Every structure is written in structure tokens, then in C-alpha cells.
Amino acid sequence: MKSVGRLDAVPWSDDPAVRVLFAALDGAGIVARFVGGCVRNSVLGQAIGDYDLAVDTRPELVMQALQAAKVKVVPTGLKHGTVTAVIEGRPFELTTLRRDVETDGRRAVVAFTDDWLEDAGRRDFTFNALYADRDGTLYDPFNGRRDLAEARVRFIGDAEMRIAEDRLRVLRFFRFHAWYGRPPFDAAGFEACRRNAGTLRGLSAERVAKELLRLLAAPDPADTIAAMVEAAILDQWLPECTGAAALRTLIAREDRPDPLRRLAALLPAGIDATAIGKRLKLSTQDSLRLDVMLAAEPVIDVAGGPKAWRAGIYRLGGGLYADRLLLAAEVPGDWRGALAVAREWTPPELPVSGGDALKLGLKPGPKVGALIEAVEQWWIEGDFTADRAACLAELQRRAQALRP
């Protein structure tokens, strides 16, 4: 595989952990190149998360070389050729060059190879088959750098074949478009995804949810979601989707992107989101949040001003109040002011409790709970200004009214 030039900037050039890693590999005669996302983002001048590398040596020998150099190594996926070196607490994933022997659309049986072009040819999109040496020498067998410059997401080779190898690539096509593409879509890729939309039902919920939330984390994924609706991509896993209109409104309003909130914007207000959370196997916390975001009640009272805002924030918490505020279809009043209060104001704790009621001689039971709730409502209506002494006095007044 011939080099095609150099990276304009080499982000790992002065990285001490990278020097340790390559010293271990070079000492064993192992050729390693950075690959995938770290090279793609380097070409774009964007931040890099983790480093992935491709190596020309079998994983067992890679492990031996790292261990001999006193580098911690974890056999994260030996069957698929992957080991993880941990240097200064940072993971470096190293995967042996591979070719597919057999695929079923979800998992692949691979064989190891020393052919860099063969390894590149089994990847999904052209810009994910970019490789770079430690010195920044760039290898680009499928013109991925050009596709990045033109904001085009393009399958390597035949799109149908790439999708047949891994059906998740349908979702990945749209996810990468949301992050790196602009209209129009690559026609061959889009039509192949449309034709294969029905195959998504065979994927695991975890993989689908992960891809969808990563897509929704893009700066502005509304056009991509609209295209997915047109191509029936979401029908298998999110048939309730109402389109991208509410998502566009949310994106214009939100002060910070939130993938789960954006997922809620794709769904009809008032829907019971419990089934959706289970279908996508969201965490219990995310499922509950989704359910609260989409519930019919409570209605957010923005027109009522700061006092009403604080009452709503006290009931829901700042985060969920902000969610419901941002998702509301029509918000009369100063919603920006309400959002600022939700972000900045910490609700106080009610200064009295059931224990204070018992000290007044009341017996434990439902009446005590109802009494505390009444005092709490009085305290809220007073905009939380009453201190403990005032709340105790109100509690005593109400308790006396309960005595025969």
C-alpha cells in the first residue's frame, strides 16, 4: 500500500506514551500504523479520543513483545486479533491485519494477514481506511481524504456487500453523515441502505441504541434523521418516530446537546416511553428520564415568571425541568430566563419533616404525611422564603386544626 503524502499535523508526535508503545513494537520488528478515527480526525484537525492501531503481526506475538517491554497488555479480543496496551493509564487498541472468511451480517470469522490493502478493503467507509505511520506518513487506498474534504460518506467498494458483512453499517452510514457529511448523500450508499432497512430488525438493541445516540450527539443531525425517515430506516426500532420537525426546534433552543433529549424529540408527546426504553434496552435511569420527558404532566408554566419557574424546578429537579422546557412545543413567556434559572438555581430542602409533626403529639399515619404535604405546598406558594421557624409555626397551626 503506497503512501500518498503526510498529515499536516501529527498529534501523537510528542506523546510519551506513543514513544513507549513504538519502542516495544519496533524492538520486536512489528510494523504498526494508526488507523480509523484518530487518523480521520487528524486529517480534519479535530480532537482525538483513543488511538487505534493496525499491526502486521499475530496478536499472541504482539502480546509477547509488549510484555517483554514491561507494557501492560489486555487480551481484549484475541479471536479477532485485538489486544489493548495500557500505558500511563491510557488504552491503545492494536488489531492484527485481517480478512473476512465468513460473515452473517452481525459477526465475522476472520483470518490474519500481512496485506495492508486486504485489511483496508474489509473496512466500511473510505475515510475509515486511512492509515498513518508514527511520523505522519499517510496511506489512503480509497480516496478517503478527498471524501472528507467533500463531506461525503462513501462505502468502500460495493455498498450492498459492505452492508451484507455487517448490517449495522446501515446505521453507521447515517451516523457518519450526521458528523462528517453534507447533502447530497452518496446515492449508491443511500439506496443500498434504503433497500436493506428491513434487515436492521436482526441487530441487538444495544448496538442499535448506541449508534442512534451517537448519531443524535452530532452538532445538527436533523437533516440526517429526516433522510432516515424517508428511507424507512427507523421503522424497525422506532416506529413511533414523528419526524425531524420537533428535533429542529429543540436544536434551535438547546443550550447544550443531549442525545437522549433529542431522542425524546423524535417521539410524540404524552406517549408511554416505558416500552421504548425496554425495546432499546436503555439503562433504568435513561428509561425513567425518557418517560418523564414525554409525560403529559406536569405542564411547564413559563408565563408565570420566576416564582412559577422555581416551583416547577423544585418538583422536577433542574435537569428534568430543562428537558421538558426545551421539548415543549409552544412556550409562551421567557423560556430562556426559565432555562437559566433551571441551570443555576439549587432548590432548597423543606425545613420540616414528619418527625417534627410527631413531636407535636400526632400519631404516625397518613394524616402526618398529608400534613407535611400541605405545609410543603404552603412553603412553595410562598416562593421558599419561609425559614424553619416559620414552617414549624405553620405546621403547629395546621396540626392544631386536626385535633378534635
Q: How would you sum up this structure in a few lines?
A:
The protein is an alpha+beta fold. It has helices spanning 16-27, 37-44, 59-68, 116-121, 144-149, 159-165, 169-180, 187-195, 205-216, 222-230, 245-253, 259-265, 274-279, 284-294, 305-316, 318-327, 335-344, 354-359, 366-381, 388-402; strands spanning 3-6, 32-35, 51-55, 72-77, 82-87, 90-96, 98-103, 108-112, 131-132, 137-139. The protein is elongated and about 90 Å long.
Could you describe the 3D structure shown?
This protein has 404 residues and is α+β, with helices and mostly antiparallel strands. It has 20 helices and 10 strands. The strands form 2 sheets. The protein has an 8-stranded mixed beta sheet. A two-stranded antiparallel sheet has the order 7-8. The protein is elongated.
Secondary-structure-based class equals alpha+beta
Please provide the ordered H/E string of secondary-structure elements: EHEHEHEEEEEHEEHHHHHHHHHHHHHHHH
Strand order of the largest sheet: 1-10-9-2-3-6-5-4
Give the overall pLDDT as a whole number. Answer: 94
Unreliable parts: none
Q: Could you give a short account of the major beta sheet?
A: 8 strands, mixed
Radius of gyration: 28 Å
Tell the overall outline: elongated
Count of alpha/pi helices: 20
Beta-strand content:
5-15%
Q: Roughly how many Å apart are the termini?
A: 93 Å
Q: How many extended strands?
A: 10
Helix content: 40-55%
Oligomer: single chain
